[in-house]
């Protein structure tokens, strides 16, 4: 199973962002593959391929993390690109977290995965929500300027999700996502 751990914004946040992104999706650009609204999430830990026999222990450890976590406020705002604006492969909106709870939650979910014997992608955690992937590296300065004006409403993160990604099984040969575990914050 190809897995990642994420915080998923509530439907009203997704709808607001979708309303902002919508007109941009209407301008065809063969280099841009816009992410589907139902794929929007904030990845805390990318786990890659995980044997099914490790999933139970992983779930137990993630549940323990969630039980220690208090709900916290977040807001989607701004924009950026990976690896950088001049030769981007990913266009994203930023995540404002005044309490740094998201960064700490990323650390604890990564530690839970490691203690379960699951190797976590070692990239530095940068809170973001992917808007689009680019077929080839391109300069996205104009797109970053447009999305940098986005400033969404504050919302409360209240749960942690373990999500399976099945490559090529979604619409237009994109990935299909399925939540395989969700745990409410109780701390």
TrEMBL record:
Chain coiled-coil ranges: none
Chain ranges for the short sequence motif HXTX 1 as given in the UniProt record: 41-44
Catalysis: reaction(s): a 3'-end 2',3'-cyclophospho-ribonucleotide-RNA + H2O = a 3'-end 2'-phospho-ribonucleotide-RNA + H(+)
Gene3D superfamilies from the UniProt entry: Cyclic phosphodiesterase
Molecular functions per Gene Ontology: 2',3'-cyclic-nucleotide 3'-phosphodiesterase activity; ligase activity; RNA 2',3'-cyclic 3'-phosphodiesterase activity
Family: Belongs to the 2H phosphoesterase superfamily. ThpR family.
Function recorded in the entry: Hydrolyzes RNA 2',3'-cyclic phosphodiester to an RNA 2'-phosphomonoester.
Protein name per Swiss-Prot or TrEMBL: RNA 2',3'-cyclic phosphodiesterase
């Amino acid at each position: 199973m190809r897995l990642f751990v994420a915080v998923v914004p509530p439907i009203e946040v997704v709808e607001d962002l979708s309303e902002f992104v919508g007109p941009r999706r209407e301008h065809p650009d063969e280099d841009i593959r816009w992410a589907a609204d139902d794929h929007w999430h904030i990845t805390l830990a990318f786990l890659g391929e995980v044997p099914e026999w490790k999933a139970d222990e992983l779930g137990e450890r993630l549940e323990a993390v969630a039980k220690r976590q208090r709900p916290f406020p977040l807001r989607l705002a701004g924009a950026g690109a990976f690896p950088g604006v001049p030769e981007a492969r990913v266009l994203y909106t930023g995540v404002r977290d005044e309490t740094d709870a998201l960064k700490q939650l990323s650390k604890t979910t990564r530690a839970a995965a490691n203690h379960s014997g699951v190797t976590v992608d070692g990239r530095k955690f940068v809170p973001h929500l992917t808007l689009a992937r680019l077929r080839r590296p391109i300069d996205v300065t104009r797109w970053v300027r447009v999305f940098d004006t986005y400033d969404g409403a504050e919302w409360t993160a209240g749960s942690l999700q373990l999500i399976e990604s099945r490559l090529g099984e979604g619409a237009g040969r994109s990935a299909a996502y399925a939540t395989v575990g969700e745990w409410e914050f109780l701390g």
